[in-house]
Amino acid sequence: MTILLKVTGLTKQFAEKVVVDDIDFTLKENTSTALIGPNGAGKTTTLSMLTGLLKPTSGSVKMQNGEVRDNIGFLPQYPQFHPWLSAIEFTEMAAKLNGVPAKSAKKDAQKTLEFVGLGNDLNKKIATFSGGMKQRLGISQAIVHKPKLLLLDEPVSALDPVGRREVLDLLKGLQQETTILYSTHILNDAEEMTDQLLFLRDGKLVEQGTLREVRQRFDELHYVVEFSSEEEAKHFTDQYEPKGKVKGCFVYIAIIDEGPSMQQLLKYLSDTPYKIRKVERQTASLEEIFMKVAKRI
Ligand SMILES: Nc1ncnc2c1ncn2[C@@H]1O[C@H](COP(=O)(O)OP(=O)(O)OP(=O)(O)O)[C@@H](O)[C@H]1O
C-alpha cells in the first residue's frame, strides 16, 4: 500500500513544556487511523501541526507527491460556522477558499451536501441546525475540495448515540475515497473504524499498530465459564489445572500460548457433573487496553 504521509521526529514545545515529543508515524493511502490518548496527551497539538496551524518546534511532515497544505481537509474540534449563512452558501465558500474554481464551487458544494445527508437542507440557515447536522456540515466543508487526507479532531465526541452512528457511517463511506486521521475519546468508535491505532500519552507515541497487533501485545485472553453456583465454581477450580480465578458463579481461565484450547476445556467440562451455563472466550475491549496503556509507566 502506498504511503501518503510520513511524520518524522515531530515535536512541539510551549515554553518549557514539551507537549508533542519526537513522534514518528506514517499514513497509508485509503486507510483510517485513530489518534487516541487521555486529555492533554497532545492529540489536538499533533493535528494542528499536520494542518499547518501550528509550526513544529522540530521534525517534519511530508506528503507523497505534493504539499500537505494543498491536500488536506480539516474538521476542528470546535468548528466555527456563520449561523446566518445557509448550508450551501457556507460549503460553497469553503470550496472556493480551498481552491475549487468559482464556476464549479456551487455544484460541488451541492453534491457534497447531498453526500453527507444534507440534500434537503441546502438552503436552511445554519442557525437552525442540530448538533448532528452541524457536524455533517463540518465534514462537508472539509471534503468539498476532495482532499487526499482528511483530518478530524474529535468528530463524534459531542454527538448523541444516533448522531454518532450517522457520522461514523458517513466517515466509513469516505474511507473508500480518502485517507482519514481522526482523534477520539470514544474508543468503541476507534474499535469500529480503524486500520491503525496511535496511542499518545504525555506527548509520546507509546503504542502504534493495527487493532489486532495492539490487542496481541496487551490482551490477557481468557475463558469465562459460568457455573450454576459459586460452590460449583470453587469446586471446579480446586480440581482443574491451570487454576482459574473465581468470581461468584464465574471462573476466569487464562489462555497462555493458545492453551488450553476450547476443545480441551469443553471436553474436560463435559466429563464433570457441573451444570454449566456458559463458556466464552473473551478479549479485552479497546477501553481496557487503553486503561493499561494510559497507566503503564
Ligand atoms: N498554546 C498553548 N500554549 C501552552 N500550552 C498548550 C498550548 N496548547 C496546548 N497546550 C498544552 O499542551 C498539552 C496538550 O494539549 P492538547 O490540546 O494537544 O491535548 P489533547 O490530547 O488534544 O487533549 P484533549 O483530549 O483534552 O483535547 C496540554 O497540556 C495543553 O495544556
Automatic annotation (TrEMBL):
Annotated SMART domains: AAA
GO molecular function: ATP binding
Pfam families noted in UniProt: ABC_tran, DrrA1-3_C
Domain ABC transporter, first and last residues per copy: 5-227
SUPFAM superfamilies noted in UniProt: P-loop containing nucleoside triphosphate hydrolases (SSF52540)
Keyword line: ATP-binding, Nucleotide-binding, Transport
CDD domains assigned: ABC_DR_subfamily_A (cd03230)
Gene3D superfamilies: P-loop containing nucleotide triphosphate hydrolases
Family to which the UniProt record says this protein belongs: Belongs to the ABC transporter superfamily.
Protein name, per record: ATP-binding cassette domain-containing protein
Organism: Lysinibacillus pakistanensis
